[in-house]
Amino acid sequence: xxxxxxxxxxxxxxxxxxxxxxxxxxxxxxxxxxxxxxxxxxxxxxxxxxxxxxxxxxxxxxxxxxxxxxxxxxxxxxxxxxxxxxxxxxxxxxxxxxxxxxxxxxxxxxxxxxxxxxxxxxxxxxxx
Length: 128
Hints:
The chain is an all-alpha fold and 128 residues long. The protein has helices at 3-13, 21-25, 33-50, 61-80, 86-127. Helix 4 (61-80) runs antiparallel to helix 5 (86-127). The longest helix is centred in the C-terminal third of the chain and has 42 residues, at 86-127. It holds the Pfam family MPC. It is a multi-pass membrane protein.
């Protein structure tokens, strides 16, 4: 770790209130990548929540599957690493849930469209 980074964290640490010192000094606290990587990953959750308004025919099932699987894998991983990273756990759980919900919406839409297509084909065949 660079000397500049360590020195800046020491200076900032002096201004952190006493009540927040345990969080500040935690092995997965704000002085480590274990804190900041999940913090920025919340952007994926926010984007996923924004996509809830997206029409179901515009949802990428492949992309949602990739996000869902990644979320589930990292949710599990966050509980087996040391230190346990509850921030990483929660963000990945939310990523997985939003992706699974989007997959459900897309598949439901595709099933409805297939049923509509089948309903159009059956009456025309019956008329002949």
